[in-house]
Amino acid sequence: VNGRNFTPAVIEPSFGIGRIMYSMFEHAFYTRGGDGNEARTVFRFTPLVAPIKATVFPLIQKPELNDVARKVSTALTTAGMSNIVDTTGNTIGKRYARTDEIGVPFAVTVDFQALEDASVTLRERDTMTQIRVPIAEVAALISSLVNGTQEWSSVLQLYPQVSKKDEEEA
Fold this sequence. Notes:
The chain has a domain at 44-158: Rossmann fold (3-Layer(aba) Sandwich). 41% of the residues lie in helices and 21% in strands.
């Protein structure tokens, strides 16, 4: 019986992309209270990591609102921001909840005020606060928020906030 010492030259840890993705999902997932007893799920991806940076919602199905939504979407795409235009007939709250669930950090809502003064509502997912932004500035603003050159807290100082009551009246 001979004894032989063997020292491995390679140690291969089992740490593939699947575990990294799972860790990212686990870290970003949480639930927050919704209306009534319903808890809503949210993926809190940082804007830079989120696969979709913004969604664009016309408040209701009207051709003039849909046209403005398409223009905002085109501006976001031109700025290099992946986005989705949601023209479903659901309420705005359900559309916000659906995009929070997949981790979209920003939502742009096109309402009738957009036709009057060329401004839209920009909502941030984590704080659920909303501001009024000129359409001409929204793509650059979202781009700076995604790239980290601006923080949401500083943006709140630059643009007027929108209350839920104001949104319901629009």
